[in-house]
């Protein structure tokens, strides 16, 4: 069972797999020692801790019904893939690239972005958004427009 990892495989749990995935999640959570894989010939191998941690995160996400994407961090992506990951339009992403917000390379006329750079930008953007939202909430509270108990704006 050799599968080539192509660019950004998104895996979505199938409805008929839900109970098996939840059972696997319980097994991985309850297990005190690292699990083993057993081949069809009976050969056993203990999963390395890093593989176990990755497997656990995948199973945990899928048990919650979430889709996951697996890709090496050093892999490059197209502008459309990067825009999809950031949930922005491709023209907006191109603008970010041209302004130097996200490092990229050009292959002929095509731009390529390293996954690591996209995830770093996404983390920074998310932190900035969270900080701005906290500051705005604090401002609204100071001005008396925000009811802290009900988390809604006074009308």
Automatic annotation (TrEMBL):
Native source organism of the sequence: Stanieria cyanosphaera (strain ATCC 29371 / PCC 7437)
GO MF terms held by the record: DNA binding
Record-given protein name: DNA binding domain protein, excisionase family
Domain of life, per lineage: Bacteria
Ranges where the Helix-turn-helix domain occurs: 77-123
């Amino acid at each position: 069972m050799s599968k080539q990892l192509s660019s950004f495989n998104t895996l979505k749990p199938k409805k008929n797999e839900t109970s098996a995935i939840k059972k696997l999640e319980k097994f991985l959570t309850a297990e005190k020692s690292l699990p083993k894989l057993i081949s069809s010939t009976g050969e056993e191998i203990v999963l390395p801790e890093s593989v176990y941690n990755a497997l656990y995160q995948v199973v945990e996400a899928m048990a919650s019904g979430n889709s996951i994407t697996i890709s090496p961090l050093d892999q490059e992506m197209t502008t459309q893939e990067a825009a999809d990951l950031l949930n922005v339009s491709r023209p907006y992403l191109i603008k970010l690239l041209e302004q130097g917000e996200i490092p990229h390379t050009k292959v002929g006329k095509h731009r390529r972005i390293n996954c690591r750079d996209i995830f770093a930008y996404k983390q920074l953007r998310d932190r900035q958004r969270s900080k701005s939202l906290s500051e705005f909430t604090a401002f609204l509270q100071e001005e008396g427009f925000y009811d802290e108990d009900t988390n809604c704006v006074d009308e």
